Each structure stands twice: as C-alpha cells, then as structure tokens.
Amino acid sequence: MALTTHPAKTARDTTVDGRALLKGRQTKASIIEAALGLASHIGLEGLSIGALAEVTQMSKSGVFAHFGSREELQISVIREYYRQFEAEVFYPAMQARRGLPRLQALFANWMQRVAIELQSGCIFISGAVEFDDRPGPVRDALANSVHAWLAAFCRAVVQAKEVGDLRADADERQVAFEIHGLILSLHYEHRFLKNPGAVDRANTGFDHLLARYAPPAKP
Fold first, then answer.
1. 129-146 confidence digits (pLDDT tens)
2. Which of 14, 73, 103, 218 is 20 to 30 A from 175, alpha carbon to alpha carbon?
3. What's the pLDDT band for 1 if we cut at 50, 70, 90?
4. What is the pLDDT of residue 25?
5. Is the Cα torsion angle 129, 135, 138, 141 positive or negative in sign?
6. Distance between CA atoms of 112 and 108, rounded to whole angstroms?
7. From the centroid of its chain, how far is CA 92?
8. What is the DSSP string of 13-74?
9. Considering only CA atoms, which of 145, 148, 144, 169 is closest in space to residue 158?
10. What is the rounded distance in angstroms from the CA atom of residue 176 to the CA atom of residue 182?
C-alpha cells in the first residue's frame, strides 16, 4: 500500500501560520474585551453571540468560531474580568510591605476598582445574582474566582497577624468576610439606594475594622 506523502512546510509557510494564529488570538481578545464591556452593563446572562456580533461588527459565525458556545463565551469573560482584577488590585498591592500596609493597599486598590464599577457594574456581584441558584460551569467559574480573591485577602490578614500588625487571635476569615461585606454594601448603597456618602462610609468602616483588630498597645 502506497503511503500518502505531504510536502514539508517551508519557512514561509510557518511564518504565515504563525501570523494567522497571532491574528486569531488578537481577534478573540478583542471580542472578549467587547463582551466584558457589554456584560458590565447588561450582565453575563444578557450576553449573546448575536449581540456581540453587532457590537464587534462581525458575523455571528465569526464570533461563534472563537468560542463554540454562549457558555464558553461567558466563562471567557469571567476569566478576563478576573485577570484584569488581579492586575489592578492584587499585584500592585504586593509591592507593599507584608502586614498592615499590604492589607491597606489591597483595600485601597479594590476601592479604586469599585469607583469605576459603580458607574457600570461588577460582574462578580451581578453574576452572583444571575447564577446563585443555577449550577453549572458559568457559576463554578464565578465562584472559583471570588473564592480565589477572598483566599488572597485571608493570606494578607494572616501575614498582618504574623508581623504583629493585627491581633494574634483575629480570625482571618472573619476579617475578610467583614471587608467583603463593606464592598457589597457600598455597591448596594451607591448603585441601588443612590447614597452619595456610601464611599466615605465604606472607608470609615474599614478604618473601624482595623481599629477593632489592632493589637493591644505596648506598655
């Protein structure tokens, strides 16, 4: 039986393939960015291949080819949202000293991010409302992202305890819970109740929290 042979790829063929792959990745990244902007205003549940095709001025089949399903599109948006969240909130705070400075930097960066999202929306919060009782990959992606972020905050609290900036008996999960509660309250008070003083109250709440968990003064 004769074996079918294929001509070897030339350097030019390899270059063309590489450019096509790069272009495909860039196109997908731009679609995800557009989808993220859309989801910030209408929620993950409002995302559709058709709506995204209209926003990006692409064909539905062109958008679909990059994801294969609406569910995969939603998950890609969640991953990109978390990537940007880490880049803006988590990594810059890692430049601060372990302990209270890092914990304060995490909260300050989070508040800066929130200041922008108060005008549009937070996918972690809107997504929780949309998918809280809907098991599946999208809910899992959302929950895993939030769990990862809160775990990072817990680590920062533990470090603050280790260096003596917070009481040794402080429960890191409780501290993270209370800080998360401030952010959730801020969104509700500002976006729904239109309370103009919500940002100041959130910052005051954080200061009070740190004061409660501060170590006893040295004699």
1. 999 999 999 999 999 999
2. 218
3. very low
4. 80
5. positive
6. 6
7. 15
8. HHHHHHHHHHHHHHHHHHHHHHHHHHHHHH-STT--HHHHHHHHT--HHHHHHHHSSHHHHH
9. 169
10. 10
Burial zone of 199 (CB within 10 Å; 0-12 exposed, 13-18 middle, 19+ buried): middle
DSSP string, 91-112: HHHTTSPTTHHHHHHHHHHHHH
pTM: 0.84
**7, 21, 76, 93 from 10: Cα distances, Å:** 9, 17, 34, 48
CATH of 77-212, one of 3.30.200.20, 1.20.1250.20, 1.10.357.10, 3.90.1150.10: 1.10.357.10
Mean pLDDT of 47-64: 88
Tokens of 61: 């089949």
- Residue identified by tokens 């005051």 is 204
**SS3 of 135, please?**
coil
Alpha-carbon distance of 166 to 211, in angstroms, equals: 9
Q: Which two tokens stand for residue 2?
A: 């004769």
Structural domain boundaries of the chain? 77-212
Contact present, 63 and 71 (Cβ < 8 Å): no
- Could you read off the pLDDT of 84-143 as tens digits, one per residue? 999 999 999 999 999 999 999 999 999 999 988 888 888 999 999 999 999 999 999 999
Mean pLDDT over residues 183-195, rounded?
93
Cβ-Cβ contacts under 8 Å for 52 (sequence gap 6 or more): 31, 34, 35, 38, 58, 63, 73
